[in-house]
Queue: 2 jobs
Job 1
Amino acid sequence: MKLVKPFISLSITIALVYFLNNSWNFGSPIPPLGKFVDPFHGFWQNAETGTVSDQEVNLPGLKDKVTVVYDSALIPHLYASNNSDLYYAQGYVTAQHRLWQMEFQTHAAAGRISEIAGAAALDFDRNQRRLGMVLGAENSLKMIKADPEIEEAVKAYTAGINAYINQLNDEKLPIEYKLMGYRPEPWTDLKVGLFLMNMAKTLNSGENDIELTNALKTFGKETLDLLFPDREPVSDPIVDNEGGWKFKPVTLDSIPAIEPLEVVSIKPVEKQPKNIGSNNWAVSGKKTASGSPILCSDPHLGLTMPSIWYAIHLNGPGVNTMGASFPGSPCVIIGFNDSIAWGPTNAQRDLVDWYKITFKDNTKNEYLSDGQWKATKKIIEKFSIKGKPDFYDTIVLTHLGPVTYDESYHADKQNKHYAYRWIAHDGGNILRTFYEFNRGNNHSDYMKALDHYYFPAQNFAFASVAGDIAIRIQGKYPLRRKDEGKFVLDGSKTSSEWKAFIPFDQNVMIKNPERGFVSSANQYPVDGSYPYFVHSSQWEHYRNRRVNRVLSEMNNITPQQMMQLQNDNYNIQAEEYLPLLIDGVQSFNLKEDEKKAVDMMKTWNYTNDAEGTAPSYFEAWLEELQLSIWDEMVDSKVSLPKPSEYMTWWLLKNNPDLSFYDHQKTPEKENRNDIITMGLQRAIERVSKWEKDHGRKADWAYFKDSFVRHLLRLESFSVHAINGGNPNTLNASRGGWGPSWRMVVSLEKTGIKAWGVYPGGQSGNPGSPYYENFIAPWEKAQPLQLKFEGAPSALTSSALFTTTLTPASK
Amino acid sequence: MKFLIQIIATIIVCFLLQTFLPWWTLAIGALAVSFAVGNKSGASFAAGFVGVGILWFGMAYYIDQTTHSILTEKVNKLLPLNSLLITTLIGGLVGGFAALTGALLKQK
């Protein structure tokens, strides 16, 4: 009997330890608390002072010594004696700062977030797999394996990451693993392909095929062409080479235009917000103070902590390059070397189609194609879900692509099946392009490198020390007849399949144009004489005109002026919209505070600076106006597209009697000026409510809220930045999106000068002083000068510390 | 006196165990020390609680000070209580119950 008490006490101790050693979910997730707060191995160990002493690390698989010097911004400068070691070290060093992010983002690409986050992520995961993300990554890996140099780089990169994982102890495990109670798995070559699929998805999924199909069926062709013209009445294309396209274009047999069959009443998975994009430009030496070209690159992406970019300098035999890399892929992606600089923006082109599939019966073993029954292939996908039993999903593959939507996924009543055709399914060895950019010497090397670039299509700006500037809109584009790809296609007819691609030498490109600069900002790419049908439902309308307007007026340009231009908040949209709106307001209907707001907007200089409330009123007005005018689309039961803000302005201006101006929910019939006034009143209500809720004036920076959010959406690991801009200004910063890597490169013969900054910091560890130290210079558009030195000795005086990686003795 | 001895011994033994082994080995340490010292149940629980509590608080506080609370403030927002307090309580509770078990085993 004497054993009862100690037994009870022991049981309590064991139960306590068990509880504290595991993660739980009682409504909200609880980390393995004991492990997490243990000051010897838990989160406390992730707190860093930032000071590290020089050290030597022995690593298996390394061939020779690699010197890694960390400069004052914690940017690593890698000096290796062979390619394999260079990429091994890149993998090792990147993992050291970003391992959790690298794994999380590749898990996301592969549809494996439920493993970490539980059932809430299952819909997302199923979508990833049903879109063919893994399929594309596998096909890319096949192509990488057929290219010995790239295969070596990828394998070495993988080995470097795994070397880091293998020596990672409990103390230094990234805090996110500790919070969620799991450990990293080995890195694989496939994960490099998966990472690149993430980018492809972000940049290619702005299509609107299903929505446009429904619009055609709901409103008819005439209205559709009015609201969604192929070429909107605004034009400052990336390449204006009227009459200069002197090649013989490839053509397809003409077939009668096929109307889409019916309304598609599925609920498409939510897409990226519109207005994401990027700016880049290169000015020739004729226009600069130094006489040398300047290249500026500024991709606008989702702003996350840790950042999508990791700055790095790679130096080895035949290569000396610096810039932004992806944590998850070898090479420098946007950057420069001793001779050239390059930077992409998204080409926006429609590289996605939806095909309606007709199955023979419910077994889905066969489907119709030109009167024949073709066999499907089925893949059973297993989803491990944290805290729940596994989930299995059968994905049916057709030769057109995986069937994404069917009765088990986002279906709405009807038993319809839609397959997804995406250029990224075909795979591509795009690392070859960056590998060659990193080593390129001149324009011809740049052109050769781009011949390997398939997807996601980008506008690649280029400048060289030799004095050339160029832009090329590179990607693999399916050849399309007019209107093809705009709507959902009939998968039972092979005539609507992708039959041919535009030859790469017929892609849109230009070198050293007369005007002395090249630029792009996601706008329509080319003048009307280009002989191919070009379609997208998301062209940009404002930033492109702003950059061209400013650059054509500038001379004796300095890099500092270019940094200012990247941070430019002038809003052409406001310049066009506001006079029209103010003119339309029925002021006799306005209350005192509404009149005051209008008066304030009248004196506004159309600049979305951080301070000042006029931009907040204007932006709220514009949003309310869009919602009221296009309420037919917003409130529709089927998924419908909204016309662009630019087309809305054009219609308000040129089409005062459009039936869409009538607001459906009110008994009265509104006209154009009614809806403008109504929009204003709602906007002022909204801004006033915001001011009351937040207890401060609606200054633009606070009202729009540039939010750099941690990938796990943890508020305390996220940062709210205070800056100006909006998606239509060159400083395209709003909400969770914005300038993700601002780079300025002056290609001077006496040595390249370069600057760069991204919102975040080199370390992915929230406990590091280098976690968010780039946010302040990013807000102020004061990029850091990048220390591009050919030898480690030139850096050591200003370095934080040096790590020497040496081969582990066998 | 035995109370103080148990506290100090717990700190030393658990520190050594924790330096090399997972966090829960502190339970074994606190239990063994309590068994060896042989305090009464109540005093053993208190000494185990205070011993591990001091060890965990001290280590966490040292890290917090040397890193200028860089992570403490962020984690405070993630947890329902101040993270130094939670750390001390959790360490103390496990240490306390383990020590109680040790004392009761000795008394049987």
Job 2
Amino acid sequence: MTNENNNLLVIKIGQLIDGISKSVKKDISIVINGNQIVDVKPSGELDIPENLNYKLLDYSDKTALPGLVDSHVHLTGIGDGRTGDELVTLSDEILSINMANNARVHLQSGVTTVRDCGAKNNTAFHLRQAVEMGIAESPRLVLSGRPLAIIGGHLGYFGEEITGEDECRAAVRYLVKQGADFIKVTATGGSTRTSFPLRPSFSQQELNVIAEEAHKFGKHVAAHCASSEAMKRVLNAGIDTIIHGVFKEVDGTNKYREDIAELIAEKGAYVNPTIGAASLKIKTMESKKENGNFTEQDQEELDSINREQEHRLECFNKLINLGVPMSAGSDSAWGQYKMGNYFEEIEAHVKGGQSPIDAIMSATNIASKSCWIDDNLGSIETGKLADILIVKEDPTKQIENLRTVVDVIKDGQLIDRQSLL
Amino acid sequence: MSEQSVIKSKIMIDMVNKNPIEDGAVIFENGLITLSGHYEKIKNKIKFNAKIYDYNDSVLIPGMVDCHTHHNGFGDGRSGDSIGGMEDNILSIKSAKNAKTSLFSGVTTIRENGPKNLTMMKLRDAVNQGLAIAPRMVLPGRPIAIIGGHMGYFGGEVTGPVESLALARQLIKEGVDYFKITATGGSTATSFPLRPSFSQKELDAVTNEAKNYGLLTATHCLSMEGIDNSLNAGVDMIIHCNFDNEKGESKFNEKLAEKIAKKGAFVNPTLHVGRARLWNLAIGKNPSLGGGENKKRLSSSIRSDRKDILEARLDAAKLSLENKLDHCRQMIDMGLKVITGSDSSWGDYSLGNTFHETELLVESGYSNYEGLKSVTINAAMALGLGDTAGSIAKGKSADFAILKSNPLDDIKNLSSVEEVFLMGQHIDRGSDESNKTYSQIKPAQF
């Protein structure tokens, strides 16, 4: 506050959710210098010297929370239902244009940091360059570049199919050289046509090497796991985040595995459950049903999604009871999940049993921890970067209030939420 | 199901009738204009369920046509050489953003003059995929250049009539709409602006193939021999059209101008790109290098902030602009077909400010109405789009700009864009604030 650099912004807020405390604080002022929070205190105790000029944003009747951290996005996605296999038939240039649009849309919706879990070739790194050149608006980017996949494995079409320990090591080194902030590995198959979602993909040795090499450079690893067996492997390899974490046996049966759940808790791994997409799909289908335009086939599909989702939410609930940290991440714009709708995922966390404040923590502080960026982000505290979301209604009362976004502040700057440029 | 739409205005300047029409209105359907005229005279043709856009306080004009754009560009003084070195993905992101800027600024048709590799063709693909929006785009693929020639870094360097023909065919295969050829050097560091680049035979190879496929051609000409070669080859548009000899002396050549007139070629003089550089020099920004400056091989000292060097550059830029304005005035007096092509975002001229170029054509002798023609109907004709764009007439594309103020009172009012329609679609331009971010404003001292 004694800083001579007169670039002060004071944000007065009615309620603060700081991302650390589970209780909501009233009548707080956040003091920002440049892009950094320099003070957070009750408005009554504000003591800015009179001769110091500052800009004031008054949100006395509104709620502030840390800018949202979406720990799982695919900026390359379109969210119109096309599969990844179809998506990659588009050229890198087109995908780059799409990524830049998606980045802007997500930022304007209140997400100030994203962890991108896989894009084709060099497009993610080129997006970062474009952002640094000032030609694209974007949340902060935590990038994996290309996900590591086995030949024919999930997301292999993004350009990093590898086999054996040496190739795994080389791939990690090359991605780190290109600027990857973390390593994404697909430890089971997935929606990729040539892959096997119920089977583990990489061997234990390969996973060990990936984790070891990434950690050597201070990078974390997040592993896509669409079935149970692979979770054991990735945990043994010391991988940091389990993505999806679907409890499914090799024969396709849904079964919660206590042994694996306990191993997750023991290892302290984060889980990114990605339960919003199904929740969104169920909503869409139910509204279609209400409009009467529903076939028998639609009903079967809805029943099946409901069954799966019920299992997913049950497992989610058991994991939170075990104290496993849940890192919220939307997985948009994969499949039918368009960017700018992160709140669907956070609402699903509440459906799964988290309280609204816990779900908000999952989407801020815990997400930032799972992305290894919590030194600077994920909470509103002195010393952290000034990424702040202002909402009209209190989301701790009702999580849907996260949709009432008023303003988005990133790096101490107000984002123009209506800009299309 | 087709929906009829109607725009009502205070004043409609349709570029068909010499006089503006008060209470003018236009009816359109399926993206095409079906009727226009005084509202009272056409209102009985409006269907009961038509969508009405009521702009009763505003001026309705055809969407603008900019014959010369660089959507890969930045317009912040950086050189073409540095843009040529950028990744295609990054240039694609920039192009998509620039295309929105063009459209939001009221420009509904552009002719691109020099993108790298396939970047603009890919932007077109993205538009067709519904992943981007852009004005109607007339694309050259990449410019055709000699080895080391102007914009050769964009990926189209060829030698000899056969290679020239092969590149022309390759570009046709890629789906281009016209050929851009650099007939002299330019700002490209390895090129020679005062010398012709291609031989007559090489130029002929490209223009003949263009005629074969009904495509137009345009050549970049910073000196007279390049203009003459281009005219001999039957090029349809002369760009820049600098009357410089090989010593760099700039003097209007009436004979050459007469030849342009006789051949019926359009002229795109690109005046503001020089003025934008002058503005940046004057306010002490680090502007682009002028056409000749790179040849002085002073790249380290020319970027210096030494006062004498800056002043010398400022004087040279002033003189160059004065010459260009004077030569443009003479071409206009002779009745040459001079049209608006902004050349943005090249050098220091950033996209979204096409009106600056039209303003200088007015300063060079056009009336406001003629200036407006140069950026609408005449520009459309120069692009071979006379049946599609450039005026508000039955059967044409429903491309409109809605202006707050009348450009016939002051041509700069072309910048007072409030709404834009492209092919019958009302364009969401986003916040007003965001539309201020691209406007390039004249420094106070000018």
